[in-house]
């Protein structure tokens, strides 16, 4: 199968005003869609770290206690992605046939109130033929109906609010896609990772997956980036499971800089000071 290589360089700097505990999810996940050729995680100052992997989805985590002062985290990786042909037709599974380990992705969650938006989902998509084409219809409706507006939403914005306000960013688009799918009894989940954007700044990107014909299929309602080139970092119910940094304590972000290089493409960099997907106060 054709291979595609991406080089990733992420820099995170924090001012720790009081001793704090960090949980990072920034390393490329263990996933059969890509292969990590080389990677390095550097943390300054030198502190004791604990690492673990969620074996259900391949998410990799780093935990550490940071003293007062400046904490710097750098993640550098070279990743090969396997390009697979896009499916042409896939069926939806009956609820009785959904595997036990997938069933949880049918349930409403913190950011995806599929129970509340059930009637809207049925009115918009209930009449359509079941299967891949119906999820593509959800993806297209969100792309055409929701305005991409950085800064409009925040870390507490839910799918219901996005549906009403008709604006948001990539994670909001993905949350709404997940919510519509679950409301139609299609298991769905959030995926966050690194992908090259032709127009800077670069940042983490959120898409969603739907369970069709016993496989997970990726959809991107923003249609901003080639989803077959996404380096997966986190997979979960919604954004609460895949934040790149969850922080307990007094902390201020000083810099977030991401450079993604695809060889022939020019590398691009984020603007500084962009917020994490979610943070926990302590």
Q: Which helices and strands occur, and which strands form pairs?
A:
Elements: E1 3-16, E2 20-24, E3 34-44, E4 49-54, E5 59-66, E6 69-82, H1 118-125, H2 132-145, E7 147-148, H3 159-165, E8 167-168, H4 170-183, E9 188-194, E10 205-212, E11 215-219, E12 231-236, E13 245-248, E14 251-261, E15 268-269
Parallel strand pairs: 7-8
Antiparallel strand pairs: 1-6, 1-14, 2-5, 2-13, 3-6, 4-5, 9-10, 9-12, 10-11, 14-15
Helix pairs in contact: 1-4, 2-4, 3-4
Please tell me about this protein's structure.
By secondary structure, the chain is α+β, with helices and mostly antiparallel strands. The chain has two domains: 3-83 and 242-269, Immunoglobulin-like (Sandwich), CATH 2.60.40; 95-238, C8orf32 fold, CATH 3.10.620.30. 15% of the residues lie in helices and 37% in strands. It is built from four helices and 15 strands. The protein has helices spanning 118-125, 132-145, 159-165, 170-183; strands at residues 3-16, 20-24, 34-44, 49-54, 59-66, 69-82, 147-148, 167-168, 188-194, 205-212, 215-219, 231-236, 245-248, 251-261, 268-269. Strands 3-6-1-14-15 form a five-stranded antiparallel sheet, with no helix packed on it. A four-stranded antiparallel sheet has the order 4-5-2-13, with no helix packed on it. Helix 1 (118-125) crosses helix 4 (170-183) and helix 2 packs across helix 4. It is globular, with a radius of gyration of 19 Å. The N and C termini lie far apart (47 Å). The relative contact order is 0.21. Mean pLDDT is 90; it is low at 265-282.
